[in-house]
Specification:
alpha/beta; globular; single chain; 8 helices
Length: 246
């Protein structure tokens, strides 16, 4: 029960990494507000878990951050952990990328976490051990064709999180990033449902497999718990060693 008596907000909780983390945090004693645009996924994964409540919302909407934080405080009366996991992909050459695609990636992947953190910080200052966990990507440190908007947004998450760690340390709040590698999630389902593509990415890891959402959830649990209490401003690669070959 490493998160007993703590309250966590997890975005992107309707599937993949967010769903797995919400379930793991609840099993470790936390009360969780799972947030996602997809109400059906929230209900499917969490309706039978007493410690998890849900909120269907587009995190990029104006005013969403305040609604999310206010909902957590109204339902639980405290806030200890914020995990910004929700995100979207994008794939287009930088030369041809539409301004709308660029802006959407930044709105969801970077601006929404900024707003949620900003709304949460006053409450995290009141927590015995406040935690901010932002999910970036190994592509925050590397790149590939067509990922200009995605890489820019995730690199921004790294820079923002490191600055939060510096600014909030005096309040006992840690701020860290998780950098997933090739993980089987809703975002990657279309690609990894092709066995040939999945095998190529699995072979990039020395462990010779794709990551699963629970792999990321376990990293998040470390950062959220007392075990990670002296870790801040850190980029935790959970990629099965994939970047050893780049």
């Amino acid at each position: 029960m490493r998160l007993k008596n703590r309250v966590a907000i997890i975005t992107g909780a309707a599937s993949g990494i967010g769903a797995a983390t919400a379930q793991l945090f609840a099993a470790e004693g936390a009360r969780v507000l799972g947030v996602d645009l997809q109400a059906d996924g929230l209900h499917q994964h969490h309706d039978d878990t007493p410690n998890i409540e849900t909120l269907a919302m587009d995190i990029a909407e104006e005013g969403a951050a305040k609604t999310i934080i206010d909902t957590a405080m109204a339902r639980f009366g405290q806030l200890d952990i914020v995990m910004n996991n929700a995100g979207i992909g994008s794939n287009a050459p930088g030369e041809n990328m539409s301004p709308e695609m660029w802006q959407k990636a930044l709105d969801v992947n970077l601006t929404a976490p900024f707003r949620i953190c900003q709304a949460a910080i006053p409450h995290l200052k009141n927590a015995p051990a406040g935690r901010i966990i932002n999910v970036a990507s190994v592509m925050a440190q590397h790149t590939d064709y067509g990922l200009a908007a995605y890489c820019a947004s995730k690199a921004g998450v790294l820079g923002y999180t490191r600055t939060l760690a510096l600014e909030l340390g005096k309040f006992g709040i840690t701020a860290n990033c998780i950098l997933p590698g090739a993980i089987q999630t809703g975002m990657t389902h279309a690609a990894f449902s092709n066995n040939d593509i999945a095998d190529i990415w699995a072979r990039k890891s020395p462990l010779r497999r794709l990551g699963q959402p629970i792999d990321i959830a376990r990293g998040a649990l470390f950062l959220a718990s007392d075990d990670g209490g002296f870790v801040t401003g850190h980029d935790l690669n959970v990629d099965g060693g994939m970047l050893l070959r780049t």
